[in-house]
Amino acid sequence: MTDATDWLRVVAAAVFDDAGRVLLARRPAHLHQGGLWEFPGGKVEPGESLEQALARELEEELGILPRRSRPLIRIRHAYPDRRVELDVWRVDAFSGEPHGREGQPVEWVAPEELPEREFPAANRPIVNAVRLPDRYLVTGEPAGDPRRFLARLDQALTGGVRLVQLRAKGLPEAEYLRLAGQAIECCRQHGARLLLNGPPGWVERVGADGVHLDSRRLASLGQRPLDSRYWVAASCHDARELARAEAIGCDFAVLSPVLPTASHPGAPTLGWGGFAELADAARIPVYALGGVGPADIPRAHGHYAQGIAAIRALWEPVSARS
Ligand SMILES: Nc1nc2c([nH]c(=O)n2[C@H]2C[C@H](O)[C@@H](COP(=O)(O)OP(=O)(O)OP(=O)(O)O)O2)c(=O)[nH]1
Ligand SMILES: [Mg+2]
Question: Does the beta carbon of 12 sit less than 6 angstroms from any atom of ligand 1?
Fold first, then answer.
């Protein structure tokens, strides 16, 4: 059994500027994981809350005071020589002008450029969490005129959605691929990403941004089906499926059902407590799905979620909901 005291508790911050760039610092060569890029932060001192530790570290290392922050992800990682529990916060407003107060180089970097930087091994899920939005739209099943479907997609994107899963189980291959091509174009216009809920081989054929594996595909794959230029996500319902998603190298997961839904009445749910336990133990970002919507995003962040995934709450026009 592992004793909680075995873990070195560390807080770190993804500090964002108004242009959406994130601040990186380079670890001094002589330290643990030296020479690599990091999110500024450091060890939690005895008696400190996480927020206190975060404020102290950002003052010491960058000369800034966080004004608006929230939990982003918590990751445990065992290096050969130490085990760290990294509590990473997203800081969206701060006072002061950040600079490397300990002589360390610091740099503002666009999130999409983060994969080109070298980080400590623990940081892979953190980098994904920084790059991913807090809402993940799962499209409703297309029916009838595809133009109506695309208009609705456009509406969701106009509302700020930046990550979409094209879920259309009822469409034959040719129709799915045609719709995917149109949906990708629509997403591009809004700077959004589209993942296909389908065979991974379709992704390169239509130029999508990645694949979303349903439980069946997740169970059938022995390894990550696409290289790191693409997103690979998975639908999970329990610890076993989450472990599988991690083992094959998925970038993130969706965990459901958190709450009862109209589509699965009477099905057992995780509840926020059950969700939080699984999401905290996961080593990849996890979205909460099932009976949740944008209004639940703050609650999701308080329960170790990347954010919320939804069909109903993000797709259907508000007026069409009961
Ligand atoms: N700050 C930070 N630490 C990270 C990241 N990734 C990662 O594996 N770590 C590890 C490296 C270290 O083992 C530990 C952080 O400890 P630290 O050496 O920065 O602690 P500190 O700022 O309090 O430094 P010190 O006062 O002890 O010199 O967490 C990251 O992105 N940011
Ligand atoms: Mg530090």
Answer: yes
Q: What is the DSSP letter of 159?
A: T
* Tens-digit pLDDT profile for residues 175-194: 999 999 999 999 999 999 99
The full 3-state SS of 289-320, as one line of letters, equals ECCCCHHHHHHHHCCCCCEEEECHHHHCCHHH
Q: What is the pTM of this model?
A: 0.95
- Does the beta carbon of 121 lie inside 6 Å of ligand 1? no
Look up the ipTM and state it.
0.96
- Enumerate domains of the chain plus CATH numbers: 4-123 (3.90.79.10), 135-320 (3.20.20.70)
Tens digit of each residue's pLDDT (9 = 90 or more) over 146-174: 999 999 999 999 999 999 999 999 999 99
